[in-house]
Design brief:
Helix content: 10-25%
Strand content: 25-35%
Distance between the termini: 35 Å
Radius of gyration: 15 Å
Low-confidence stretches: none
Structural class: alpha+beta
Shape: globular
């Protein structure tokens, strides 16, 4: 398998330079990067990112979960074709969305990403 390398996200210093991520950490960093950017933040990539739904009135979490999964797939599959992503989530008692992202690379399961939005 070819080793994938990229600058670590969020940026960290290591040995006088920028820290580097390898393999599955690179893909995990890419997922986190997409989730932390809102569409329109990058002028040259106006559709890159996931919208902040904090002030949206939605009856169920399903719409947000489906939209997030679709955006992650559309933005990441061209660069990581062996990536498989499944999102699930529900609103907690506090009104925040508990989002879980299960993902794998080349059919090798990776640790799930859990976020509270």
């Amino acid at each position: 398998m070819t080793t994938i390398r990229s600058i670590r996200f969020p940026l960290e210093l290591s040995g006088g330079g920028l820290a580097v991520s390898e393999d599955s950490d690179v893909v995990r960093n890419a997922i986190m990067h997409v989730l932390t950017i809102e569409p329109g933040e990058y002028l040259t990539l106006p559709n890159y990112g996931v919208p902040n739904r904090l002030f949206d009135s939605l009856p169920d979490a399903g719409a947000i979960v489906r939209d997030t999964e679709a955006r992650l797939r559309a933005l990441l599959l061209p660069d990581y074709p062996t990536l498989d992503i499944r999102c699930s989530g529900q609103f907690g008692e506090n009104g925040l969305l508990d989002l879980r992202i299960d993902w794998s690379i080349s059919n090798i399961p990776q640790p799930a990403i859990s976020l509270r939005l």
